[in-house]
Amino acid sequence: MPHHVNRLTIAIALASTALIAGQAAASGFQVREQSAKTLANALSNAAAGAEDVSFMAYNPAAIGNIDGNQVAGGVAHIDADFELQDATASQGPIVYGVNQSGQGGETATVPSFAAKMQLNERFDLGLAIYAPYGLSTKYDEDWIGRYHAVETELTTIDFQPTLNYRASERLNLAVGLRAQYADATLSNAIDFGTAAALKGGTPGRDDVIGTVEGDDWGYGYTLGALFQVTDKTRLGASYRSEIDLTLDGDATFRGTTPYSDGAVATEADPRIIDRGGKAELTTPANLNLGVYHQLTDRLALMANAEWTEWSSFDELTVEFEDSTDDSTTTENWDDTWAFSVGANYALNNQWLLRAGLGLDESPVPSPEFRTPRVPDADRQWATFGATWMPSPELSITAGYMHVFADDGGIDQDGSKEENATKGSLNGTYEVEADVFALSVDYRF
């Protein structure tokens, strides 16, 4: 029994490291919607576009392409839909459901801000505040996969002071410090009825909901270069380092029936007593490469490739404040590439139309590593938008992105050690998302 007690506790605390769950609009848990201009072009102008100060979030050298001082602010609204269809769940002889479905999509609003000032002919100083990673998913507490996931909330905020050096009339080089704050809340159910069956519990009914909350600060850097090859062609490259985080938090428990709620309230079982713990995780490094070409006075073409080092997320280790042994599980994510192309067309001096297409690889290598927290699959984007410039100093941009994701099978095997208290879960995920973005920038 003590070994089973430890495993049940581990199942909840281990989930605290699964905060890095999939964001429907980008692979893994990445958020790329820091600018309405980049979103409307399917991110094809991320590395080389350098149209306003908000591009500092993608390439810090972008501020060298902007003379004078500028501020920009924006907001993106992400409406994601995850649905597991034809699902089957069981634990040993207990069957939790057959051919059921569960919907876990949520909406999220992601703000961003950036500002820069030109110090002199050689140097620019900037500050960007944005969310590079995040997730919001929530399933019903009685859904078929509740022992794997119920709710996941992840918020990250990067504070990025940036210094750009104008090495020549054509070359900008930049470096930025990234101070990243991460805050997370996650929950899943425990089949306490099965664990306490000999004391009157009902398997599959007397559940306990375990919730883990944790936060931390981490630090990294970003590097960028912007090269104006000709008057019409610009190349961009940027690198963002990985950031190590240690999420310190607490696990709390509550019952879903009078029986399980009473057991929690009286601390009748060590498996459902509040406790603390910590989990080490790394947000991945990535590289952006891009080209921007002004084909005619009205038409501009652009392309971007982004590499993300998701292989840094190879395993999760949880350490507990009590005597429970550490727990490690393998994730085995792969590095990924995302590719996009886009175009801008100037109707006149005040209106610029934008469009783009993109595709993004999933880091999840196979169905056995896909979970309800990371219902990730290869995806494609289609985007459009427009920029209105009522004056040379002011521009307002609106963008829209629709994400088409491939179906993704899930094959969580209950015989695996990390699923000892969660059971098996099988089915097929359908994922799609809509993203709306609005931004304003002003030069002075």
From TrEMBL:
It holds the Pfam family Toluene_X. This is Transporter. PANTHER family: LONG-CHAIN FATTY ACID TRANSPORT PROTEIN, OUTER MEMBRANE PROTEIN NMB0088-RELATED. Belongs to the OmpP1/FadL family. InterPro entries: OMPP1/FadL/TodX. Keywords: Cell outer membrane, Membrane, Signal, Transmembrane, Transmembrane beta strand. Residues 1-26 form the signal peptide. It is found in: Cell outer membrane. It is a multi-pass membrane protein. Its main location: membrane. It comes from the Bacteria. One of its GO terms (molecular function) is long-chain fatty acid transporting porin activity.
